TrEMBL record:
PANTHER family per UniProt: 28 KDA HEAT- AND ACID-STABLE PHOSPHOPROTEIN PDGF-ASSOCIATED PROTEIN
Domain (Casein kinase substrate phosphoprotein PP28) ranges: 70-147
Species this protein is from: Rubroshorea leprosula
Name of the protein described by the UniProt record: Casein kinase substrate phosphoprotein PP28 domain-containing protein
Record region (Disordered): 1-102, 136-158
Length: 158
């Protein structure tokens, strides 16, 4: 014969108490336990009333039930190079300092690039001058060809 879903110990079957036994068992508690339970409930009610008064912001999930203070939890600080103060750099982490230095170096490089003082800017300007010269030569050549065509047309019409 099958015992069902729950298999008990090999020594015997599972025992379930009836609702009558449960009701009878609840009144069989010792009186001292009932007194302690009542005191604990009163303390909890008083504490919950104080918490409701003190707590102004609403918390999600179990955050309202448990107070958590994690000293290792660091809020992330995103900072741009322009916003950073040189005096405050001692308070920043190594990564933040490196990021700020990197941004400042990039800004310096871009300023020099605009002024044409970097090697790359010089090469770009040389290339640009060469391209302008080639375009000017090509335009002259087109003008000469156009003038030659017009001259040729004028001769054939005569």
């Amino acid at each position: 014969m099958g015992r069902g879903k729950f298999k008990g110990k090999p020594t015997g079957h599972r025992h379930f108490s009836t609702p009558e036994e449960l009701l009878a068992g609840s009144s069989a508690r010792p009186r001292t336990f009932k007194k302690e339970e009542a005191e604990v409930e009163q303390q909890q009610e008083e504490e919950s009333e104080e918490e409701v008064e003190d707590e102004t912001e609403k918390r999600k999930g179990i955050q309202g039930l448990i107070e958590i203070e994690n000293p290792n939890l660091v809020k992330q600080k995103n900072m741009k190079a322009g916003d950073a103060d040189v005096g405050k750099t001692t308070e920043l982490s190594r990564r933040e300092r490196e990021e700020i230095e990197k941004q400042k170096a990039h800004e310096r490089y871009m300023r020099l690039q605009e002024q044409g003082k970097t090697e790359q800017a010089r090469k770009d300007l040389e290339r640009l001058a060469l391209i302008r010269q080639q375009r000017a030569e090509a335009a002259k050549k087109r003008e000469q060809e156009k003038a030659a065509k017009e001259l040729k047309k004028a001769e054939t019409h005569k």
